[in-house]
Each structure stands twice: as C-alpha cells, then as structure tokens.
Amino acid sequence: MMGRMMRGVVAVCLALGLLSLGARAAGPVETSVFAVQGVAVDVTDTDAATAKNKALVQAIMKAFSMLAERLGNPSFAADMAKLEEKQVMPYLKSLSIEEESMGPGHYMGKLTVRFLPQRIKALYGQYGIQVNADQSQALLILPLWNGPEGPQLWEDNPWRKAWLNLRAEQAEVPLIVPLGDDADEGAISPAEALAGDPIKLEALRRRYDVKTVLVAVGTPAEGGGVRAQMKGETDLGTVSFDKVYGADQPTLDASSELAVRRFHEVMTEKFHSNAAKAVAAAEAARQAKEAARTGSLPVSVPFTSPTEWNGLRARILSTPGVTGVDVTTLAGDGAVIRLMFVGGLEAMQSSFQASGLNLVRAGGNWMIQSM
Questions:
Q1: What per-residue confidence (pLDDT) applies to 292?
Q2: Cβ atoms of residues 313 and 370 within 8 Å
Q3: Fewer CB atoms inside 10 Å of the end CB: C or N, the chain?
C-alpha cells in the first residue's frame, strides 16, 4: 500500500508538472514564504527507483513540518508532524530537485518543496496561526571574507558558511547568497567585490534578477570575534553596518553566525517599521478622504477646566463651516467629539485658524487646540 502511494505521488507530480528534475541554476530564486528549500533526504531501499520515490514523499513530509515550525511554533509543528501522507499531499503545490545522486538501492538529494498558499492559510487558521505572507524585495548578499590569506568570495570559510546556513530565502526579508559556480566566479573577483565595482555588481544583480546587491565583509577580530561591515541602499532604507561580534563561545564560526543573524534581525525590524508606517499613512489618508466626503471627523479637544471646555465648544460651533459637534466622551482634562462640517478638510483647518484654533494631527489622531 505504501509503495503504491509513493509511486502515485511521483506519477501525479510528473503528470501535473509539479516535479522539476533540473538542478538548481542561477536566476530568480524561490522566495515565497510557502516554500521550503534545501530539504535533504537520504534513503536506501531495494532499488534506486524505489528509494527515490520514498525520498520524495519523505521530503514533502519533512518540508511540511519545517514550514509549520517557521510560520508557526514548535508546538504547532509537532501537531502538523502527526498528519499522515494522505492528509498532507492536498497541500502540495510543487517540488524541485536541487541536487541528487543515485546508486544501487540508494537515493540522496536536496529538494525545494512548495505548498499551496490559500490551503496552508486555511489549515493554519484552524489552529489560530495567522500567516503573514508580506515580504520585502529580496536582497542578494555577497559574503566577502577578508582574512589573513586575503579576500575570499567563493572558498569555504566561516563567513560564507554563516550566510548560507541562515537560509533566509523565504523569510520576511529574503536574503539570497550567490551559488558560487563558475559563472559567479567569472562575474566578479574578490578584489572587485571589496572595491564595490558597480559594473561587476550589476552583472551579478542581473544574473540573480534582484533589485539590490550588498557586499557583506567579514573580518577576523581579536578573541575569535568577527567584524561585520555592510553599506548600501535598499528598499528598506540605508544600510550602514559596522560592528564587531563575539559569540559566547568565541570562534570564527559562532561569531560569524551571530553577526549574520543580527543583520537579518535588523533588516526585519526595518521591514516591520516601514510596514507599520505605511499602514498608518494609509489610515490617515483614508480618514482624510472620509472626512472630505462625509464632512465628519473624530477629534480630541484637551482642556484644563469645565469653563475652558465651554468656551472651546462655543468657539468650535461658531467656526464657519462647522455644522455640528457630537460629544463622544467627556473627561476632566479633555473630550472626544465628532466634528461635522461642510467643505474639505484643508478649508476647515483655515476656518479654525481664523477663529484662533488649530485643527492638527497629533500622534495619529486629530486634535483641536487654542493657538
């Protein structure tokens, strides 16, 4: 039964074009939050074909749990790991083979597994997990290790390994590390990367179809620490990163990983901050548009005494263009009113100024106060 199921999964994937057999190549990199890259499998069975079929199903199940932990939490991932293959397969979108090797009764490979966004959102929602699929533009990170042996781009070193191990291609701020194949080595040299050669960096940017390339320089520091340096302009703002990191266990590997994680945390914080500002700006624009159309606006009116409140209320009502004031809340130090008026918001602000009052935004809210 299990063998038939595994063969059926592979057959369906092939028939629907869900299984790509090509090795990984440069170009647009998968950045969807609903994809899991680098899923490693190593299976032995009676023959290579059976081992491969079993490995593909294993990769799907493994990726399903990895996605649940990334988008949810360990407890939720444990719940998802309890699902059977037949329950998981309806959520599969496609899978691609990044690397593979086969021998007698043996299959080993790495795969990218993609899941259907709407189905995943619906499933996770049943467990109270809300999936945020918003992402920034992907950044291509070119890790340059500037050690005693000279600058290195593609060799095995702690700095490049830390960036590769971050596996942030599908994060809120996707980070892509070049493959380091022959084409990459021919596109830019370590010296050119260290100098920030704009023509060479542009060639690399085009190869990976991204908007921004950042050269990340790692330099060994005293005591096993690493100095991390990076400068550039991104959609998230200006990047200016220059700091020495030393892990609790101060080795070059651990310190490099700490620096890389911290950079990604900073960029993610920038992404959240920009998103919050965009939401606030959109809400302000919506309120202004609503006020211009309906002629009403929630406004706070601070005061220090009932006498001052009575005077302010009288002045507001006598301001040209004001058609009414509904008091929503009233306290000892202020009131919240719904101001009703005719004409646009800018005209209303001018009318209040003529009456000796200011209608202004403060902390995301509208306020009327004496000039």
A1: 60
A2: no
A3: N
| Cα–Cα distance, 207 to 262 (Å, whole number) | 27
Place of tokens 């994937």: 13
Give CA–CA dist 132/165, Å, rounded. 23
Nearest to 36 by CA among 168, 124, 141, 176: 168
Q: Which range, of 61-65, 221-225, 261-265, averages the lowest pLDDT?
A: 221-225
Question: Over the range 217-256, which residues count as b (16 or more CB within 10 Å of their CB) and which as e?
Answer: bbbbbeeebbbbbbebebebeebebeeebbbeebebbbbb
CA dist., res. 269 & res. 282, Å (int): 20
Q: How is residue 78 written in tokens?
A: 């444990």
DSSP-assigned letters across all residues of 235-270: TTEEEEEEEEE--SS--HHHHHHHHHHHHHHHHHHH
CB 190 within 8 A of CB 282: no
Q: What are phi and psi of 366, to 5 degrees?
A: -85, 145
Question: Mean pLDDT over residues 26-37, rounded?
Answer: 75
With bands split at pLDDT 50, 70 and 90, how would you rate the model's confidence at 133?
Answer: confident
- Residue range 343-357, pLDDT digits in tens: 778 888 899 999 899
CA distance 52 to 143: 34
The terminus-to-terminus CA distance of the chain in angstroms comes to: 81
Tokens, residue 287: 């309120």
DSSP code at position 23: P
Q: Look at strands 150-152 and 139-147 and give their pairing.
A: antiparallel
Average pLDDT over residues 182-188: 91
Residue 34 dihedral angles phi and psi, to the nearest 5°: -95, 15
The CA-atom distances, in angstroms, between 163 and each of 63, 80, 240, 247, 356 are 21, 29, 18, 16, 59
Q: If we measure between CA atoms, which residue out of 188, 184, 190 comes closest to residue 201?
A: 188
What contacts 295, CB < 8 A, 6 or more positions away? Answer: 323, 340, 341, 342, 343
Spatial separation of the C-alpha atoms in residues 278 and 291, rounded to whole Å = 20
Residue 179: count of CB within 10 angstroms of its CB = 16
How far apart CA 192 and CA 151 sit, in angstroms, is 10
CB 215 within 8 A of CB 200: no
Please say if the pLDDT value at position 363 is more than 80: no
